[in-house]
Design the sequence.
């Protein structure tokens, strides 16, 4: 049973760390939170050293005062278990709990998440701390949600110590039903004399003289994700035992630079799915990244979710930490709401004056209230209050994009035909034209229910098991349209090449067979018959029922099909054997989705993002103007613009750089 967050409307707030400030500052915090419209804050995330100053000795006096203060001012608490940062005394008592990196270096304490996920001592201490916290605050009136740990795997996704090696072996015995022959077969250990005769011979994929076994590396990624998930589940059980009605979450990191955890496995264990999302300063089209991340998190949640962390301005951990431009903070936040977020929160409430994140922006910056960030924070609070009725509404999409962490991990292992392939870059390349066209998108697992969709895209599905491949091809056979990108279907779940020609699992369904791959060098391109170019990849495609749509015109494969279309049962299968340039790919996807009967959410001017959330009685149309020109968008004759509260009969104006949210009653 999923427990729901009880905070009304669109929740608003951020990480609150009052322990960093003198207590006389707290009263000002409360006053300013009320002024900004804050309704919920996360507290206690990094407070273990204060709550348990020595082993078994607890001091909750500061947290008692903070929670009482929040409740007295009508602000809910997302109360964290502080287990992401064990105190120094713990590591002095248990140095064996410190992690070991891939090169065998033991890491020291002195920052956060410097623990081995497989350490029994860490698990025992973390659950003891969680139990004390849960029993003390289970009935506190400020408590609205448990915030379990913080950003699992952010800094310690993998530990290569002996304790982790033993845990890996236990995990493998479970995966392979205690059958060592099954493991040897799955890992292909006859190659390079890697056959194992005893479970104790198996190690993590530590550095060796050559390339480690690819299936061993893939299983290691799976194990590392599951090991952290087991820690979350253990803490959550303790919390639910003490407070069975309080929902629990932990903050995912669905963003461009994090791939350590298989969130399809994690999401069902969260009552409320939440996410942290930070922009890449060097990304000139950050709106695409926000949209892709938001669609993926909404898909993981199966509906609304919470944005637990993002930034009001610059972060502190990139080579150059760019401040956000005029209106960008508001556009970013409302874009997340458009994609399903029922809560908007920041790291952090008050900018720190000391510590590793002292140059990270906050809701209340170093400059105080006489600042543009503060004025934007107050304005956003009013915006979210005006959007209260949007809460709980859902997105609607007829296009699904296949996203699989196993396929991502496997494709980015060493010794591929090309080391230039990046899963997220390929998915984004296909996603971007849909975003620009205003087409709604969900993300799905290969084995998901595909019946709600007209079109399914698999831009990069290097690894797929038989069930996933059958599910995708069956979708097309039943009348859907399936489009598959190069180097997909190449290996099974054990990273074994599917013999007989490429694209492996999909060659019969797509009506093509490739006998040799010709990846392209960095900067190299090949001509396409439609006038465009292809990069990254080419292959010698032979038709086996499919028709050519585009062909290579230069290079060793001149005249060979590059894009194909195949009738499959009642549906259609498309194959792209290269990465076309942006205009060519956009034109292809436009043709594919048009043939599939997929329309944009709303026709708008270029650069105006249109996103729809559907409630029980009304649709909510978010219009985000990313340009420096005002735009006019056609809406329903009985529409209302919610941020201003003004009627918008038939059309609404969206100023340059601004956002409009339109209610269209049904």
Sequence:
């Amino acid at each position: 049973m999923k427990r729901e967050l009880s905070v009304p409307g669109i929740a608003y707030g951020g990480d609150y760390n009052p322990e960093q400030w003198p207590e006389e500052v707290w009263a000002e915090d409360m006053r300013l939170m009320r002024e900004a419209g804050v309704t919920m804050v996360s507290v206690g995330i990094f407070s273990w050293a204060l709550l348990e100053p020595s082993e078994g000795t607890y001091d909750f006096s500061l947290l008692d005062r903070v929670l009482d203060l929040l409740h007295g001012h009508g602000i809910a608490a997302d109360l964290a278990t502080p287990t992401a940062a064990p105190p120094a005394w713990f590591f002095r008592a248990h140095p064996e709990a410190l992690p070991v990196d891939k090169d065998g270096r033991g890491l020291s304490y002195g920052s956060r998440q410097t623990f081995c996920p497989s350490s029994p001592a860490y698990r025992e201490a973390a659950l003891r701390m969680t139990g004390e916290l849960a029993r003390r605050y289970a009935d506190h009136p400020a408590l609205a949600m448990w915030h379990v740990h913080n950003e699992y795997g952010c800094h310690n996704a993998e530990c290569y110590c002996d304790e982790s090696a033993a845990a890996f072996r236990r995990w493998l015995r479970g995966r392979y039903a205690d059958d060592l022959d099954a493991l040897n077969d799955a890992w292909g250990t006859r190659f390079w004399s890697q056959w194992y005769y005893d479970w104790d011979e198996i190690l993590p994929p530590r550095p060796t003289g050559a390339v480690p076994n690819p299936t061993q590396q893939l299983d290691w990624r799976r194990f590392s994700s599951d090991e952290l998930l087991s820690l979350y589940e253990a803490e959550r059980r303790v919390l639910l035992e003490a407070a069975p009605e309080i929902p629990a979450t932990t903050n995912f990191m669905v963003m461009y630079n994090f791939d350590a955890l298989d969130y399809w496995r994690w999401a069902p264990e969260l009552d409320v799915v939440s996410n942290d999302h930070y922009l890449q300063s060097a990304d000139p089209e950050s709106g695409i990244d926000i949209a892709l991340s938001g669609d993926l998190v909404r898909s993981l949640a199966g509906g609304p979710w919470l944005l637990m962390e993002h930034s009001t301005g610059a972060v502190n951990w990139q080579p150059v930490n760019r401040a956000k431009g005029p209106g960008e903070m508001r556009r970013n936040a409302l874009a997340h709401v458009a994609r399903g977020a029922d809560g908007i929160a920041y790291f952090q409430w008050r900018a720190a004056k000391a510590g590793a994140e002292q140059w990270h922006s906050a809701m209340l910056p170093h400059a105080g209230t006489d600042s543009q960030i503060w004025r934007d924070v107050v304005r956003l609070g009013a915006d979210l209050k005006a959007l209260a009725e949007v809460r709980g509404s859902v997105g609607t999409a007829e296009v699904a994009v296949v996203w699989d962490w196993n396929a991502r991990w496997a494709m980015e292992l060493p010794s591929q035909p090309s080391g230039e392939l990046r899963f997220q870059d390929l998915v984004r390349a296909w996603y971007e034209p849909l975003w620009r066209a205003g087409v709604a998108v969900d993300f799905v697992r290969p084995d998901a229910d595909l019946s709600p969709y007209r079109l399914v895209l698999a831009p990069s599905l290097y690894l797929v098991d038989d069930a996933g491949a059958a599910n995708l091809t069956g979708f097309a056979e039943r009348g859907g349209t399936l489009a598959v990108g190069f180097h997909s279907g190449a290996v099974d779940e054990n990273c074994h090449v599917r013999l007989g020609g490429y694209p492996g699992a999909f060659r019969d369904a797509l009506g093509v067979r490739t006998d040799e791959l010709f990846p392209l060098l960095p900067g190299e391109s090949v001509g396409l018959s439609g006038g465009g170019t292809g990069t990254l990849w080419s292959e010698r495609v032979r038709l086996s029922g499919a028709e050519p749509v585009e062909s290579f015109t230069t290079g060793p494969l001149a005249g060979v099909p590059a894009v194909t279309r195949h009738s499959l049962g009642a549906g259609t299968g498309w194959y792209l054997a290269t990465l076309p340039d942006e205009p060519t790919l956009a034109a292809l996807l436009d043709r594919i989705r048009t043939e599939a009967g997929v329309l944009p959410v709303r026709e708008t001017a270029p650069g105006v993002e249109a996103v729809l959330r559907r409630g029980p009685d009304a649709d909510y149309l978010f219009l985000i103007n990313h340009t420096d020109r005002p735009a006019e968008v056609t809406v329903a004759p009985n529409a209302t613009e919610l941020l201003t509260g003004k009627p918008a009969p038939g059309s609404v104006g969206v100023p340059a750089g601004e956002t409009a949210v339109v209610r269209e009653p049904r």
